[in-house]
Structure formats: structure tokens, C-alpha cells
Amino acid sequence: MPEISRFYGIRITIYFDDHPPSHFHAEYGEYEAVFSIKDGEVINGKLPNTAKKLVKKWYGLQKENILRTWEQIQNDEVFDKVPPLD
Fold first, then answer.
1. Hey, which of 10, 22, 62, 65 would disulfide with 37, CB 3.0 to 4.6 Å?
2. What is the 3-state secondary structure (H, E, C) of the chain?
3. Model confidence over 28-63: pLDDT tens digits?
4. Domain parsing of the chain, residue ranges
5. Contact status, residue 36 vs residue 23, Cβ threshold 8 Å
6. Are 50 and 35 in contact (CB under 8 A)?
7. Are the C-beta atoms of residues 33 and 47 closer than 8 Å to each other?
């Protein structure tokens, strides 16, 4: 499960050979949520509100990069890390 970004204690990952729809995992402490790459909404799981807002802000800035990285990982290609939220 490659880490594609990390910021403010939040770890963002995408699994190899993962199922559609395209999504990413966000972990913060003992919390984990799965976010849709299509619209940035939570598909499953839960994060504290502050962490969730940070992930959504990051998603809004990096949507195209996240989708490209998803495709690279699913195609077993070398993937680009997505810039963190500053």
C-alpha cells in the first residue's frame, strides 16, 4: 500500500490492484476513512472533523494529481507522490 502523501499527521495511501471506484485512504491516528477520487466524499470510515477538512482541502488542490497517481499504481507503473498540504 504505497503512501502517496503525508501532511499534518495524516497519511494518504492507495492500494495496489484495488477495486473501483477510484479512491484513496486517509489515516490519522486510529482513524481511517476512504475518499472517492471522483468527488472527494467519504465512502467509508471516519476521521475527526479537523483531519477530514484538511484532507478535503488537499483533495481540492490535488485532484488531478491524485487521479494520475491512482492510475499509475493500478497499472503497476512508477508513481508520482502527490504534494502535501502546506
1. 22
2. CCEEEEECCEEEECCCCCCCCCEEEEEECCEEEEEECCCCCEEEEECCHHHHHHHHHHHHHHHHHHHHHHHHHHCCCCCCCCCCCC
3. 999 999 999 999 999 999 999 999 999 999 999 999
4. 3-74
5. yes
6. no
7. yes
Nearest to 63 by CA among 16, 12, 17: 12
**Distance of alpha carbon 9 from alpha carbon 19, whole angstroms:** 26
* 55 CB-near residues (< 8 Å, 6+ apart): 10, 12, 26, 33, 35, 47
Please give the model's pTM, rounded to 2 decimal places.
Answer: 0.94
